[in-house]
Write a structure and sequence with these properties.
- With 324 residues, the chain is an alpha+beta fold.
- It folds into two domains: 10-265, Hypothetical protein apc22750. Chain B (Translation Initiation Factor IF3), CATH 3.30.110; 276-323.
- Helices cover 33% and strands 27% of the residues.
- The strands form three sheets. It has a four-stranded mixed β-sheet with strand order 1-4-3-5. Strands 2-6-8-7 form a four-stranded antiparallel β-sheet. The chain has a two-stranded antiparallel ribbon with strand order 9-10.
- Strand 3 (109-120) and strand 4 form a beta hairpin.
- The radius of gyration is 25 Å and the shape is globular.
């Protein structure tokens, strides 16, 4: 089974526009007096500091790619390897350029990685592949959180999940993906007539979808193994048709590969633990229920998940006593 990706020319992969170079050179990390930029929310920014990291800059990589054509047999399930290779190469170019910006900032990693595809009216047969994220650096400055290859790690986890990973003694290694563009066979008119009005599995479709999804997941797993990770968190599988017609479908599996940290790099037990607050006014019927502020305060919740059920039961009891 072929493993696609990582075939782009080194010079092309590391290329960046002059405007990007100017922006990066004035960003924290490249310039001691520079300011940071990020796509973090206020809460994520604060939590990142609690985890012992600082944001350096918003990093981006882009590639506008012309996706070729491939002819498939009308009645056969098969992978469209020309299209698969194109989708791999374009994303790898975008990811590599984003990582190059982070390395320029001397970052330890990138959090909140997002991959997207943009189409333009002036190029119906081309797509822009965009990778974005926030470059971060550990305040301790030991480099222990970098990927095994010495470069910045990449991850699509949020700052909240990043904090929890560190607290558990793990760290992201790389954002991994696997893709497969697959042609799902058409049914003949006779097959369609035989199935009319009957409950039965569409075996041809099941087999095609199953194989395509498994190919994408297997390739994602192979990337994590190559990155020397011990596991993958946050796996998801997206299905898109893009511009190839209704029977040519891309299956994209993504996730963040992780590895264990040495004990000395784990967050101390005294580190603040992430908590959340249950907004009582958003509870159905609660804001206009007529309960007094004192009753609402009795049920107020802020803390770990163990007390969530108690708070919800308290709200239900108060409402039942009021309404019945």
């Amino acid at each position: 089974m072929p493993l696609f990706g990582k075939t782009q020319d080194g010079d092309a992969a590391s290329w960046e526009p002059e405007a990007a170079s100017t922006r990066i050179s004035a960003t924290a990390g490249a310039d001691a007096s520079g300011l940071f930029s990020s796509d973090l929310s206020v809460s994520e920014y604060v939590l990142l500091g609690e985890a012992g990291f600082e944001p350096l800059g918003f990093v981006i990589g882009s590639s506008i790619y012309h996706v070729g054509l491939q002819i498939a047999k009308w009645s056969q399930n098969q992978e469209l390897q020309v299209l698969t290779q194109a989708m791999y190469n374009a994303r790898e170019l975008a990811m590599t350029r984003m990582r190059a910006e982070a390395n320029h900032l001397k970052a330890d990693g990138i959090v909140g990685v997002n991959l997207s595809i943009q189409s333009y009216v002036w190029g119906q047969d081309v797509m822009e592949f965009i990778a974005t994220g926030t470059a971060v650096r550990a305040l301790a400055g030991t480099g222990a959180h970098r990927a095994p290859d010495g470069q910045a790690f990449t991850s699509d986890v949020s700052a909240q999940d990043f904090f929890r990973l560190l607290a558990a003694g793990a760290v992201p290694v790389s954002f991994v993906l696997g893709t497969c563009v697959y042609h799902i066979a058409h049914q003949s008119a006779m097959q369609s007539l035989r199935q009319a009005g009957q409950n039965q599995e569409m075996v041809t479709f099941t087999q095609g979808i199953y194989e395509a999804r498994e190919l994408a997941l297997t390739r994602m797993q192979a990337e994590a193994t190559e990155a020397k990770a011990s596991g993958i968190v946050g796996v998801s599988v997206e299905v898109n048709n893009h511009v190839w017609g209704e029977h040519a479908t891309e299956f994209l599996a993504t996730g963040t590969s992780v590895r264990r940290l040495a004990d000395e790099h784990r967050l101390p037990d005294t580190s603040p633990k992430p908590t959340f607050t249950l907004g009582l006014d958003s509870y159905p019927g609660f804001s206009n229920s007529g309960l007094s502020p004192a009753h609402k305060a009795d049920c107020a919740f802020s803390g770990d998940l163990k007390s969530l059920d108690e708070s919800v039961r308290c709200i239900d009891d108060r409402l039942k006593a009021l309404w019945w």
